[in-house]
Amino acid sequence: MEFATSAVGGIVADEVSNSMLVRVKRHASYILNRRKNLEDFKKKVEDLNDEREKVERAVQAAERNEEEIDARVKRWLQRVDEMLNDNAEEVKALEDQAKARCFVCCPNVKSYHQLGKKAQEHAAVVAQLLQRAHLFDRVSYPRDPELIARVPANYYDFHSRSNLLGEIMYALTNQNLKVVGLHGLPGVGKTMLVNVIAKKAWEARLFDEVVIAPVSHSPNIRDIQGDIAEQLGLRFDNVEKESRRAKLLSQRLSGGKKVLVILDDIWEKIELDDIGISLKDDKALNEKQGSIIENSGGSPIDISTGRIIILLTSRNYNVLDQMNAEMKFECRVLSQGEAMALFANIVGHASVNDPAYKPIANQLVEKCAGLPVAVSTIANALKSTSLDVWENALTQLKRSNPANIDKMDWVYSIIELSYRLLKSEEAKSLFKLCALGPASNICLPFLVRYGLGMHLFEDVLTLEQARARVHALVHKLKASSLLLSSNNVHIVKMHDLVHDVCRSIVTKETKMIVIEDDNHMRDLMRKGKFHNCTAISLPYTDVHQLPCVLESPKLKLLLLFSKVKFQLQAPEMLFEKMNDLQVLHLIGMHCPSLPSSFHSLTNLRTLCLDHCKLGKIASISNLKKLDILSFQSSEIMQLPNEIGEMTELRLLDLSDCSNLEVIPANILSKLSRLEELYMGNSFDRWDVEGNASITELRYLNHLTTLHVHVRDAQLLPEDVFPETLRRFRIFIGDIHWDWLNPQKCSRTLKLKVSTRINLDCGIRTMLRKAEELYVDELNGFQSLLYELDNTSFPDLKNLHVKSNSEIQYIINSSHGISSEAFPLVESLLLHDLVNLKKIFHGQIYSGCFSRLRRIEVRNCDSLKNLFSFSTATHFLHQLQGIEVSDCNAIVHILCADREMANQEATGAFVLGELQSITLQSLPNLVSFCFGEEKHSTSHHGQIGNTLSSVPLFAEKVFIYVIV
Q1: Domain AAA+ ATPase, which positions (predicted)?
Q2: Greater confidence, 396 or 305?
Q3: Residue 958: exposure state from Cβ atoms within 10 A (0-12, 13-18, ≥19)
Q4: Do 305 and 441 reside in the same domain of the chain?
Q5: Buried b (16+ CB within 10 A) or exposed e, 465-502
Q6: Domains in the chain: how many in total?
Q7: End-to-end CA gap in the chain
Q8: What is the pTM for the complete model shown?
């Protein structure tokens, strides 16, 4: 027993001895390796500084483009600053302390130990920060992207839909689900429902990002990739291969965020990996993308967790099975009561309750078979019409009611009836044009160009009139539920069921043909269908080869949209027997030279060669009747001299021709009838090596639309921009401007000039007309209003002022200003104005900024407050967003002034429309509002780095809504 005890004691003593030895060695290494640890730490800090500068440059570039900085990047930069300010200073202090001890006879071993230990620990944290930086695929995304389709104002929340919506929303919170499916009849409301789901999921913050992409019966992978990428803020730039785009999209979706991807209207199985949607194990993904970096105190800095869930809609339950949907829901038809309520909400309850109308209404709704699209279509067609029209509609439906008729045939007949009830023949013609392309992407500018080329519009003499006519007709078609709005003001959509009916109508009435694939084309040719047709469309379908000759003597319109870019090439004699052709639109074609049969197109008025690879095109000048010529997004290096011979041209579109470097001098000035000239993201080499001069614009006296980029403002002569301009995007400055942002305003002016410029070169006129104004690095001005222009900017809606070291005031009333300055401005963005003292200086009239909705201020270090109470009284109640960040001098957002001091203390300010407040990196912020010390109920907002001994919000300010 005594021996065993002794043995155990020896073992324990050995273990203790070994453990102590390890600890002694570790602590000794801190002392012995202190110089090595210190050098390693300094080297890593140097690398971290370099990496921070690289990231900050990318962030500054992104902010100049009005992009949203990734939250992970912001956190990383904040942690780097903490490291460099705190931890590096600690090591420096320890190093100084250790050096000081060297001058006495006995060095301080404790100082050496602390220096070696802290240098090693902090070097590990720096290494983690460097590793984390390498995971950033990009630092920013476009601000406020249109992530989700808006739910129409006339959406009705029926009981059956509410229950289904709740079930699907609950399923989306299930961490184990990856694919959820929704099926139902066409027209039953699947697309509407997923739009509502997207909106609610986004508002409830169930996902970081929500995207919706239509698929349709002939899915185009590139289009789907493009739709998703655009909503995520991902740019493919010049990446053409689908596989490469898929890889980029997969990397973006695998960025550690929770993403809901909605693929709408799937007809058959598609491979998600081909699109770039990978459903790999989320846990493995998180381990790859996310990491925890701890500071010296052990607190976590960042951890990224990601999850992708797919929501599919389809007419076919089996397709959802094939797509491996783990939960499937059915969207059923409306009950008779719900359908009648929808009908009554559209036509008006008074009509439905009228004894003469009510029985007809009941029968009409019954014919709609519970499908919302049918109910809304017939209801909109009958709204505000007489009893005779109702009775006639019911009679027509009854006549097409054989005993064996299919339910969907009934719906077709209802939609077709709505088309028949259109009183405008022009509206009917425009509706039929919409059948020739994809249902989810009907481009209004294309409709203008087609309609003008085919003489569809009566009493239309100019492009401006044609555009106005198209918008009026589209409004009528929307009112009849035959067209739908989209998030893009230049795009409308059509319900897939309505689109089917529309194609059926054009096939019967106008002999328009939509070709689906090679077999379909061969079958049509064998039957001689092309001989009498008036329009042919290949809308991104599976056609790989065009016929040598297409004998269509009555053809008016031909659309050839290649599904694979540059795959299709027009045979030499393809157009030989199309003498009456008026509109030709080619997309994605390879045209090393124009086919010799082009000489036959003597009646052509609209020619669009978009997204094409173009070579020799000089023979295009033979098309003497051409009104509209477009090379949008095409690969073209030089515009031929012969273009100058096309003196009848009214529209020339060179937008997104990024390779276009040569436009010979005196070509543009010869196009004296030109009404619209588009050169955005295209030619900008004005007055270089025999190129066109910007002064040639002076000779275009009919120009109403101009998109142009001038890099050198000194090239601008006096009054270079025509007074006739009604729409423009004029970008001035040596910078790569972003032309891809959606055009929400029709008149945009962007200025980036480092020196004071001559405003009389036509810029002053554009300033007065602009709806959107960007001012970047425009030096030589202390006050934006009056010095830049002494008018009131009467049409301006969005004002962005950036990167200026001289501007002290946006408005300085001491110079004398109009009482209606900036009357329409809705958003005000002020970035990097280091000398800005006040936004409003002096007395401001009530008309100034009277429609302001959003204000954003960043990096304005001389600014102590945004505005005073008296200044803000006329717009404070309608503000929807306030964002203030990185402003070191800001003390209060709202401050009291003399005028307010004379008012009773009980006065309060209501922020009744406010939706968001962001106050970030404001080290001297004391409170939101100065002048009130009573505490009020706290409200949800995004507030960071605020140290205050008083309440942030006081009773002076009431905030009713924050969402």
Answers
A1: 176-338
A2: 396
A3: middle
A4: no
A5: ebbebbeebbebbeebbbbbebbbeebbbbbbbbbbbb
A6: 3
A7: 76
A8: 0.68
